[in-house]
Specification:
heterodimer; A: mainly beta; six-stranded mixed beta sheet; four-stranded antiparallel beta sheet; 50% strand; globular; B: seven-stranded mixed beta sheet
Amino acid sequence: DAKTTQPNSMESNEEEPVHLPCNHSTISGTDYIHWYRQLPSQGPEYVIHGLTSNVNNRMASLAIAEDRKSSTLILHRATLRDAAVYYCTLQVTGNQFYFGTGTSLTVIP
Amino acid sequence: DAMVIQNPRYQVTQFGKPVTLSCSQTLNHNVMYWYQQKSSQAPKLLFHYYDKDFNNEADTPDNFQSRRPNTSFCFLDIRSPGLGDAAMYLCATSRDNRGRYEQYFGPGTRLTVT
């Protein structure tokens, strides 16, 4: 059973904001939401994570729905270096880390 | 720089010949994870160690074993590799396993089975 669902692909123009959605309708109260991104032939790179409140860091923002059944990763100004596969993951109580299927982001110059 | 190191980056083994992949970390993190990532798929957690405590995922085949002799090192042993075990193997670390902290990933070892 899928813990998270994401669109397979998205496109964005360079220097425009990007909103990457993720659904996690079976999330429990203590499950953290993490986002990672991965370039070809590299290990995933941490982007951001949160539990209940919206989060900001130097890379991105994470908006978490009030019922926590969905979240959105926001890249404020997409650059060509942001082209990657973005994974929405859940840290599930009991220590498991479930990766979603990922969204392949294409940034158009 | 503190980091997660995986050796080798590329490994070729023969069908049925045991193989060991290694991971080391300079972050002094309590938790070390092993993931399997097949082509065009998301990483799938195989197991993890919290300190010396081993936590196996329910659907990880018995063919996969792990050892963590000390805080810095963790090994993935594949006892009898099959063609279906060809994949990228990723090692990651974290301060704890409750999700409060991010995971740091190594570059991965790409395993080919001939």
